[in-house]
Amino acid sequence: PGVTNKILSKFANKVCVSFEASKKYFRDLDKVEVTGNPRAYEVLGSSREEGIKYLGLNPNKATVLIVGGSRGAEVINQNALKMLPHLSKISHAQFVYVTGQVYYDKVVDYIKKRENLGLDNIIIKPYLVEMPLALSAADLVISRAGATTLAEITVLGIPSILIPSPNVTNNHQYLNAKVLSEGGAAELVNEEDLTPSLLVNKIIELIENKKRLYEMSLCSEKLSYPDSTRTIFRLLKDIAK
């Protein structure tokens, strides 16, 4: 939690946090409730079949979703571009690469200048209007580690490779990613350690080890709070009495 949240917590009746590990940062623990993030509720309801159809994917292949947020993440995009020739050779998997609007034209220009990349198993989009559908189709997600993103992937039980942004207050994305990593739901890769070969190797290692991927999926779901919205609503009703 940031400084503002800590200050405001002094005047609040209740403090809602996304993870158990966040509680220790507040002085008055009696006020703190682990509710999860309300966004989780919004991504429930879409099936894998619906997600596959929405994106035009092959239902018999593993699906890897690579995303850096609505505006994109420069470091993730830099590495993803260099990964494209390698990803195109992984015939038993398919990739949905969401660049973010800021970087989409650059990615398209990069591809146009390189013939015979063979990107038949890679879909490249600037953004996705129906991100819940894309998530429902994913067997593995590669992304930053914002609280909303993690709420979405855990409620759906999706394994992940998390690359926390170092450019955030109190390094909170690293702390978010650490919760999932230590809980067995994610692989944590620090931005300074990120290379295209490292990421490609991790992708191959995970999608070829179905047992590991399944175990990560179970761990991811255990860290979710699907009733977050109802829990927060109940707390508000109790306070209003």
Automatic annotation (TrEMBL):
GO MF term set: hexosyltransferase activity
Key words, A-Z: Transferase
Name this protein carries in UniProt: UDP-N-acetylglucosamine--N-acetylmuramyl-(Pentapeptide) pyrophosphoryl-undecaprenol N-acetylglucosamine transferase
Gene3D superfamilies per the UniProt record, alphabetical: Glycogen Phosphorylase B
Chain ranges of the Glycosyl transferase family 28 C-terminal domain: 63-223
Keyword Amino-acid biosynthesis: no
SUPFAM superfamilies in UniProt: UDP-Glycosyltransferase/glycogen phosphorylase
Record's keyword annotation contains Hydrolase: no
Cross-referenced PANTHER family: GLYCOSYLTRANSFERASE, UDP-N-ACETYLGLUCOSAMINE--N-ACETYLMURAMYL-(PENTAPEPTIDE) PYROPHOSPHORYL-UNDECAPRENOL N-ACETYLGLUCOSAMINE TRANSFERASE 1
Species of origin: Candidatus Syntrophonatronum acetioxidans
